[in-house]
Design goal:
The complex is a heterodimer of chains A (691) and B (286).
Chain A (H helix, E strand, L loop, with lengths): L1 H9 L12 H14 L4 H6 L5 E5 H6 L9 H5 L5 E3 L7 E3 L7 E5 L2 E3 L3 E2 L4 E2 L6 E7 L13 E7 L8 E6 L3 E11 L3 E10 L1 H6 L8 E14 L4 E16 L3 E19 L2 E20 L2 E23 L2 E21 L2 E23 L2 E15 L4 E4 L5 E5 L6 E17 L4 E12 L1 E4 L10 E4 L7 E13 L5 E18 L15 E17 L4 E16 L8 E2 L6 E10 L4 E10 L3 E2 L4 E5 L2 E5 L6 E2 L3 E14 L2 E10 L9 E6 L7 E7 L4 E9 L1
Parallel strand pairs in A: 4-9
Antiparallel strand pairs in A: 1-8, 2-3, 4-5, 6-7, 8-9, 10-11, 10-42, 11-12, 12-13, 13-14, 14-15, 15-16, 16-17, 17-18, 18-19, 19-20, 20-23, 21-22, 23-24, 24-27, 25-26, 27-28, 28-29, 29-30, 30-31, 30-32, 32-33, 33-38, 34-37, 35-36, 38-39, 39-42, 40-41
Chain B lengths: L1 H11 L4 E4 L11 E8 L2 E8 L16 E6 L4 E7 L4 E4 L8 E8 L2 E8 L6 E11 L2 E11 L8 E9 L15 E6 L7 E10 H6 L14 E9 L1 H16 L12 E11 L3 E2 L6 E2 L3
Classes of the chains: A mainly beta (691), B mainly beta (286).
Chain lengths: 691, 286
């Protein structure tokens, strides 16, 4: 399926001068159809893989979102097994993992911290997107790098025949898009851009007029049909955030990704895809107040060559095999602390070999099986350490840049089987092992752009997850409704977190700051779809547990993970009222997030402190929220205009964002508990014009 | 920096709100809490017990413990309970460079710890000043001191004490430091250390809301600052203590035996006590 999507990403627009009998193009059309309708009931029933979700951009446009900004990441959070980090957050957690354990690929390039304004908005402009596939269960063998999930996003190709333009003005941002042929029928372009204008609001205030608060992103995609058998796709993405408090503090971060993708078709049975990929995530924060001048920046850079072939010897086998090599650079931090300058930067080589087969054994049994050899070699050119139990360096070596310091090699088997029980029911079972070499270390439960990152090294091991899952899918005879249930059990080894009391600037040597441990997660996911008629939508429910065990935390015993939430329920309804009006509503409920609250208090140096006997032993209050949207679409000749109205949190429920405990001797209760909520009711409106 | 992000988020989220909620706390068996210090001003220990989260009555030091502190200079001192000062005390000062060992028996349990005493850091200057940030003037406190050990990383625990006779603070318990902080000397100019400390905005001082009374410095308040040079383990403990209050984790005590608290050997210096007068505070100059 992945390879099909790559093919679609490379060339989705129909070619002129080529009839339907042209096999390659017929396949491309077929692939295009597969992607666009992949959330249809038929496609869900046909899917062999367990634990895969497809995001349809057309559906995304209808679902109400915060500030009216269409957000592919937040739309994921309405799916079973996927949770938001917190209200309004762009971070998502899959099956008990953290957001840092999700691999996000944009046309094959890795994107980190895929959120603008600390996650309030998605990094991805929906105008440029074609589709997204989230692999939360069985991950195809061609993917590696995310221990919890892989979200594979493809950008859209420009129209090869006609020019189209569009623009949207919303409350907080505006975006424009243009696409069309470069050489009709042979090549096309698509350009889109978005910029927020929050800084204009700030300039209108006396208190905040000298502050900076904006983001922008840009996507460019060029497609060239070099010959009947060759398609070259070039895609480029750049997203950037800039926040600043006068000239006192600033925070900037962004992603740059570029992919050159060459698809060559040998014949109907064999095609080859070769990608050259570069991605760069960088963050830069600083403060200059009085004598305090602190600057810290870091980056993660990937340069990859990926070659894969798809061979379909007959209609029972669909074999994908390939090889990938990546030169990886991680600058965990480079900082200036007044007069001190320190830097930690390391390089590594990663490699992968894989083979996978979609094997239709018989009508009742299909198998998708693969195996991936994952290699990671930490390179010299930077100091490497031996560290004692307290985090102190006991030995330092300085290997040369050509020296391999440590190599890890892992075999990652992945298998999923579908057993059809007649036309309307099937069972699926799957097992997947995944690993991750770049570890994000977050202070707190939410991911932030200034998280410290570290690579596997002589001390830090690759994070490795094993997951088994079992599922059932059923559909009514008419196809109007379909239902699914999946259960999973997952273990993750080599999970790293900050030592107590340490924070990102405690030491430049990030390995001194962390402790390793393991996690486990298990749960049940239920989903029901209504597929036909003016009212469509789905209900998804997740019952989940997530636990961690890290020496030095909670006495070394298992404890509830901070992202543990027992129940999550989402109801999504979309109603086509008339050809002009479509309405949508989502209601989301989740039980409270795991929370560490004090269980006693004590006095030292005249102050009162809280004692915490249980890590995450309490629950925050439940959250629920209703969001509404309405779109009015009118066509005037070649022009289409769309008014989009939305109400986020329609009944103004104040859901917990932060809960704070404060000692208060004047109160009879002795402690004041305050809940801060981010959003009450938030209305939105936007206007889109397309030609 | 997290506060910075929090401010940004709050600017955006015009509809954000904070409200007080009910919360059902779990009960925990009271634990022994030990606070012990050896400084150049003597040796003292307090022993208390933790109490319920909903208990607003502060603990007093518990009698009945046998406590000795000996140093690697061979001197052993027994601390005696002093009800008047609410602690166990010995006037024998510690000396920089020595490692001290706490040995204590209380209710049949032995508690032990050690800590090494770093050299003192003489304060050369300190003053309040105003700095303008985001259109608001902030009251700051700047301190400079001499780094006695410029070749190693040194750790500091600074506490500002305020005794106020302002009517708003009448009858309130003023044993807690007005503010405390931790810092190290990374990046400081050679031979010097400095501390720049943001205290409160002028706007909050002007508004004089009850929720801010504990944070507001009033004219006539007596202010003194204590700078204590501490070892890395004490610094880690206090870091964990401060961060754990918002991250839900107890700090790892350096005292064995199963208790809350710490044992620190440190060198203390004090500023002169000044009488705070807001009109005398000048604009900060680089």
């Amino acid at each position: 399926m992945f390879f099909r999507m790559i093919a679609v990403a490379a060339a989705t627009a129909p070619l002129p001068c080529l009839g339907q009998e042209e096999p390659d193009i017929a396949r491309e059309r077929d692939l295009q159809e597969v992607t666009i309708t992949s959330r249809s009931v038929q496609k869900r029933m046909e899917e062999v893989q367990i634990g895969v979700e497809k995001v349809e951009i057309a559906t995304l446009a209808k679902v109400p979102q915060l500030f009216g900004e269409k957000d592919i990441i937040k739309s994921l959070q309405l799916l079973p097994g996927v949770k938001s980090e917190s209200e309004g957050s762009g971070g998502y957690q899959v099956r008990g993992g953290t957001s840092a354990q999700n691999l996000i690929l944009l046309d094959g390039a890795t994107v980190y911290n895929a959120g603008h304004l600390v996650g309030l908005f998605s990094t991805f402009n929906d105008d440029a997107l074609m589709s997204g596939a989230l692999y939360k269960g069985m991950v195809p063998a061609q993917f590696g790098g995310g221990s919890s999930s892989v979200f594979d996003i493809s950008t859209r190709s420009g129209d090869m025949h006609d020019y189209h333009y569009g623009g949207t003005i919303g409350l907080l941002s505006a975006k424009v898009m243009a696409e069309g042929p470069i050489q009709e029928g042979k090549s096309s372009f698509l350009v889109s851009g978005r910029r927020s204008y929050l800084d204009l609001f700030l300039k209108a205030t006396d208190d905040y007029k000298n502050n900076t608060l904006h983001f922008y992103d840009a996507n460019v995609r060029l497609n060239f049909h070099l010959s009947e058998k060759d398609v070259l796709a070039l895609s480029f993405f750049h997203g950037f955030d800039n926040m600043g408090l006068e000239d006192l503090m600033y925070m900037k971060w962004g992603n740059t990704a570029a992919t050159a993708n060459w698809l060559h078709t040998f014949n109907n049975q064999l095609y080859v895809n070769t990608k050259l990929i570069y991605s760069n995530f960088n963050s830069n924060i600083g403060m200059d107040v009085m004598n305090m001048r602190y600057i810290m920046d870091g980056y993660i850079r990937h340069a990859s060559l990926n070659h894969q072939q798809t061979w379909m010897p007959n209609d029972r086998h669909h074999v994908n095999y390939g090889v990938e090599g990546t030169y990886l650079q991680v600058k965990s931090a480079e900082w200036d602390m007044v007069l001190l300058h320190e830097r930690e930067k390391r390089n590594a080589l990663t490699g992968a070999l894989w083979i996978g087969d979609d094997w239709k054994i018989c009508d009742a049994l299909e198998l998708q099986a693969g195996i991936r050899l994952h290699l990671f070699s930490a390179l010299g050119g930077a100091p490497y350490y031996q560290i004692d139990a307290d985090g102190n360096i006991t030995d330092t070596t300085n290997p040369s840049s050509s020296e391999i310091v440590k190599t890890y090699a892992d075999i990652e088997p992945r298998v999923s089987a579908k057993i059809s029980l007649g036309d309307q029911h099937n069972l699926k079972i799957g097992y997947s092992r995944t690993s991750q070499d770049v570890h994000a270390i977050n202070n707190g439960a939410m991911s932030m752009p200034f998280s410290r990152y570290l690579m596997s090294s002589n001390i830090v091991k690759p994070e490795q997850a094993d997951q088994v899952s079992l599922g059932w899918t059923g559909v009514t005879a008419s196809g109007d409704y379909d239902f699914s249930a999946e259960t999973y059990y997952k273990t993750i080894n080599n999970v790293y977190d900050y030592r107590d009391g340490k924070t990102f600037f405690s030491e430049i040597e990030v390995e001194r700051l962390v402790l390793g441990g393991k996690g486990r997660a298990y749960g049940l996911e239920l989903c029901a779809h209504k597929n036909n008629g003016p009212l469509t939508g789905w209900i998804s429910y997740t019952l989940a547990w997530s636990e961690n065990k890290i020496e030095g935390i909670n006495g070394g015993s298992w404890y509830t993970a901070s992202n543990d939430r027992r129940h999550d329920l989402s109801i999504v309804g979309m109603y086509q009222l008339s050809p002009e009006w479509d309405l949508a509503a989502t209601w989301h409920y989740n039980t409270g997030q795991a929370l560490s609250a004090p269980s006693a208090k004590y006095d030292m140096f005249g102050s009162t402190f809280y004692s915490y006997s249980e890590r995450n032993g309490y629950r925050a209050p439940d959250c629920h929220r209703l969001d509404l949207s309405a779109n009015y679409t009118r066509k005037h000749g070649k022009a289409t205009h769309i008014w989009s109205f939305g109400v986020y949190n329609a009944y103004n429920r104040y859901n917990p964002y932060v809960i704070r405990f404060t000692n208060d001797d004047k109160k009879a209760s002795g402690t004041k508990v305050e809940q801060t909520s981010l959003f009450g009711i938030v209305p939105s409106v936007s206007f889109t014009l397309k030609y | 920096m997290k506060q910075f992000i929090y401010i940004i988020v709050c600017i955006m989220a015009l509809s954000a709100c904070t409200k007080e909620i009910d919360f059902d706390f779990h009960d925990e068996e009271p634990m022994v809490v030990i606070e012990a210090q050896v400084t150049n001003e003597g040796r003292w220990v307090t022993i208390t017990r933790s109490r319920s989260v909903t208990d607003s009555v502060h603990s007093r030091c518990l009698p009945g413990a046998y406590i000795t502190i000996n140093g690697d200079d061979g001197l052993t001192t027994e601390l005696t309970y002093d009800e008047a000062t609410n602690r166990y005390f010995s006037p024998v000062p510690g000396e920089a460079g020595n490692t001290y060992f706490l040995n204590m028996f209380f209710e049949g349990v032995q508690y032990k710890a050690s800590s090494t005493m770093p050299a003192a850091t003489p304060i050369t200057s300190s003053e309040f000043s105003w700095i303008t940030m985001m259109g608001e003037r902030m009251l700051c406190y700047e301190m400079w001191a001499i780094d006695q050990q410029p070749d190693v990383r040194n750790y500091f625990w600074v506490k500002m004490h305020r005794i106020s006779h302002h009517p708003h603070l009448e009858g309130t318990r003023q044993t807690a430091p007005y503010s405390w902080d931790l810092f190290d000397d990374r990046g400081c100019p050679p031979g010097k250390i400095f501390l720049d400390w943001m205290l409160i905005s002028e706007k909050n001082m002007d508004e004089d809301k009850e929720e801010n009374w504990k944070r507001i410095l009033y004219d006539g308040d007596n202010i003194s600052v204590t700078l204590m040079t501490i070892d890395a383990k004490t610094y880690d403990y206090l870091q964990q203590l401060g961060r754990g209050q918002s991250h839900g984790a107890n700090p790892h005590s350096n005292i064995t035996g199963g208790c809350l608290g710490y044992f620190a050997a440190g060198s203390v210096v004090h500023t002169d006590t000044i009488v705070f007068q807001r009109n005398n505070v000048k604009e900060w100059q680089k």
